[in-house]
Amino acid sequence: MICSIVQVTERYRRPSIMSSTIMHQPGLTPKAEPAADAAGDDKNPALLALGERVRRLRAARGMTRKAVALAADVSERHLANLEYGIGNASFLVLQQVAGALHSPLAELIGDVTTASPEWLLIRGLLQGRDETTLRRARVAIGDLLGTGGGAADAGRARPQLVALVGLRGAGKSTLGQLLADDLGFPFVELSRQIEQLAGCSIGEIQALYGQSAYRRYERRALEEAIRIYPDAVLATPGGLVSDAATFNLLLSHCTTVWLQAAPEDHMARVAAQGDLRPMAASREAMADLRQILAGRAAFYSKADLVVDTSAAPLAATFQLLRQQVRQTLALPG
CB-based burial of residue 263 (10 Å sphere; 0-12 exposed, 13-18 middle, 19+ buried)? Predict the structure, then answer.
């Protein structure tokens, strides 16, 4: 059995190299938790910018401060100080936080485009461009590299693989099954495919092997779905957009639909399913949820279509989704 209680026990039994020293890091002095509206006039601008990047990356990954602190082996207070711009973190602490967020250290400190002169030249060409121009550049690069650009490229037939994206509780499973039945397509939940590949549940994958391993399974599951199904309705995990390569693959091979919903509806729908994890265990559940939505909205908005599942009852929402998808795929309505 891949996922055994023995593995879980051994994973948490191993001592951390940093655990005995992290509370004594000279570069990250513990301070009292800052107030949210504390004046920032006396704070270092570079540290404020660093803290903002940490918060943004944490939101994009859908991780609470407690989860990042645990993964990075630092205290929540240290991480809070870093996010508020009052913690002058040491290099090792920044390295641990970057690892917990599955981001290059360069991205955490603010520059991922310094690897070579070509990177700098490309960055110069793209600097200050609007979103439409940047999208055209991304599509052109995808075509040049043979990875595909976008599903809506001019002169290219629309993919019949329809992918629903959005945070958990948006209605992907319910509306996805209805849409698949209406179109006569198979309905595929990528989360179930991931579990089949791994031989255990998603929770066990993350507990035993971590987020990086989970993202690899997610990518493999999407690749297989694209290979196997010429037409289907695909419900994707809410965090798929966190991995740029996987999201690029989705955009290139699928007609994508963002199922958008209000934070309150996300929370209520997940709770109605009898699952109060992960957000409802936190006293700051709604604030965390809003932050995750804010961090991912810019990525979800890259979808070809957007349907608000909070604006109308289920039947009316489905009719809107059905109409938009059929029109986009040039199918009779």
Answer: buried
Please, are residues 167 and 261 in contact by the beta-carbon 8 Å criterion?
A: yes
CATH 3.40.50.300 fits 138-328, yes or no: yes
The pLDDT value recorded for residue 43 is 81
pLDDT at 227: 94
Q: CA 180, CA 322: separation in Å to the nearest integer?
A: 10
Domains of the chain, by residue range, sit at 17-109, 138-328
Look up residue 172 and give its two tokens: 């992907």
Query: Which structure tokens are listed for 232?
Result: 């289907």
For the chain, which ranges sit under pLDDT 70?
1-41, 115, 147-158, 274-283
Q: Are the C-beta atoms of 193 and 156 separated by less than 8 Å?
A: no
Q: What is the pLDDT of residues 241-288, one digit of tens each?
A: 989 889 999 998 999 999 999 998 988 888 887 665 555 555 677 888
**Residues in Cβ contact with 268 at an 8 Å cutoff, skipping those fewer than 6 apart:** 169
Question: Shortest CA distance to 8 belongs to which of 202, 199, 278, 206?
Answer: 206
State the Cα angle at 245 between 66 and 142, rounded to 5°.
155
| Class for the domain spanning 17-109 | mainly alpha
DSSP string, 138-180: HHHHHHHHTS---TT-TTSPPPEEEEEE-STTSSHHHHHHHHH
Edge-to-edge strand list for the sheet holding 231-235 = 187-189, 231-235, 160-165, 255-260, 305-308
Measured from the Cβ of residue 145, the count of other Cβ atoms closer than 10 Å reads: 9
**Amino acid in the structure at residue 246:** T
Longest Cα pair distance anywhere in the chain, in angstroms?
A: 67
Q: Which residues, at least 6 apart from 258, have a Cβ–Cβ distance to it below 8 Å?
A: 165, 166, 300, 301, 303, 305, 306, 307
Q: What digits encode the pLDDT tens for the residues 185-218?
A: 999 999 999 999 999 999 899 889 888 899 999 9
Residue 256 phi, psi dihedral angles, 5° rounding: -105, 145
